[in-house]
Amino acid sequence: MSFELPDLPYAYDALAQNGMCSETLEFHHDLHHKAYVDNGNKLIAATEWETKSLEDIITGSYDAGAVAQNGVFNNASQHWNHIQFWEMMGPDGRTMPSELENAITASFGSVDEFKAQFVAAGVGQFGSGWCWLVQNSTGELAITKTENGVNPLCFGQTALLGCDVWEHSYYIDFRNKRPVYIQNFLDKLVNWENVASRMAG
Ligand code: MN3
After folding, report:
1. FRET partner for 119 with CA separation of 20 to 30 A, picked from 62, 85, 132, 161?
2. What's the 97 CA to ligand 1 centre distance in angstroms?
3. For ligand 1, a single-atom ion, which residues have Cβ within 5 Å?
4. Residue 67's domain is classified under what CATH number?
């Protein structure tokens, strides 16, 4: 199945007052995400992957020992990651639904402690990658970090929240201050209703 670049689910300037300006979204969506779509389509054309779903391409091409050279995996996973990332943010939905707040409090002690651990995971990811709030197959929540385009699908986990910690995601708004970017993401950009909708009951 060929990849298609979805529109952002909000206007380019919708997040500007909350710390992600339209220039960031124009570069990140129109250039970076589009490049994963275009490169991925070139790589899967006329191969075994061409008829597979995006999720099947990601899990089927993932090779933990050889991520850096795996073009099909890297472009497919980054395409999927960015679709989720756009949906996980928004100008609305910033009040955390109680079922999510209860689950986070049960797992991490408090929302503030969850945020502190999430920021630490993103800061601790050396080089490009992502940090995540995931739900594993037994329903427990956990915070993880992954290199490059690797995502929770590779480990059979559900991605509830993902934060892009590649420099292209924050350099225009926050320069080199990755910790400030991630804290601001949690405090002002996340659509918690979207995050809650991803949880299995
Ligand atoms: Mn990115």
Report:
1. 62
2. 27
3. 164, 166
4. 1.10.287.990
